[in-house]
Amino acid sequence: MYRKPIIAAFAVVVALSSFAADRSDIVKSYALKDGSTLHVFRDGKMGVENPFGRAVDVKAGQVLEAKDGSKLTMNGNEVIRLEQVLNEGRRGH
């Protein structure tokens, strides 16, 4: 009776784990004025890492200021994807 939903849930977990990101997915990083870092992925989507090394939520379209004074517009909001990249080396495997 509950077998099909469990199998379906397992299939979703397996499928999502195949989309795990790694450092090579980041093509460019920008130091921001507030001490955060903006990371740009291969597909142009972006994620922001706070000064403590955690991925943070930033609205798509928000304008961020780099340390050099240039303005960068947030494209996407890849919090989970960036968190996976940042935690990649911390797993203890």
TrEMBL record:
| Highest rank taxon of the organism | Bacteria
InterPro entries listed in its UniProt record: CopK, CopK_sf
Q: Which GO terms describe its molecular function?
A: metal ion binding
**UniProt keyword Transferase present:** no
Q: What is this protein called?
A: Copper resistance protein K
Keywords in alphabetical order, please. Answer: Signal
Organism name: Cupriavidus oxalaticus
Q: Which residues form the signal peptide?
A: 1-20
Could you confirm whether the keyword Signal appears in this record? yes
Q: Note the Gene3D superfamilies from the entry.
A: Copper resistance protein K
One family name in Pfam for this protein = CopK
